[in-house]
Here is the input.
Amino acid sequence: MTIQTYKDLIVWRRSLDLVITVYELIEKLPSSEIYCLSSQMKRSAISIPSNIAEGRRRGSRKDFHKFLLIAYSSGAELETQIEIAKRLPFSKNLDYTKVDQLILEVMKMLNKMLSVLRS
Here is the structure.
């Protein structure tokens, strides 16, 4: 399969799945978190596919690498925010399995792409 656009990238598609999963998780958080942790988690999650798309559209290998690095950093932010949520008493009973699986998958793909672009 030839990659014509960022929409052909599996990592972009899986990161969209991650965004949806984060939104589903956030719906289960208390409304008191809507402007704090929930907001940060949404921003971090949305940043991942957005930066993949922007970097791919820029056209150069150097720019693509730069924006993949930003996406990877946003993934690290999201991982941290999820860990914070797990430790808070109001979210102890939430199921993090799907979000953990997707973030791990996306981060591994981004890490591999970054290492290939570095060489």
In short: The mean pLDDT is 93. The CA atoms of residues 62 and 117 lie 8 Å apart. The longest helix spans residues 61-87.
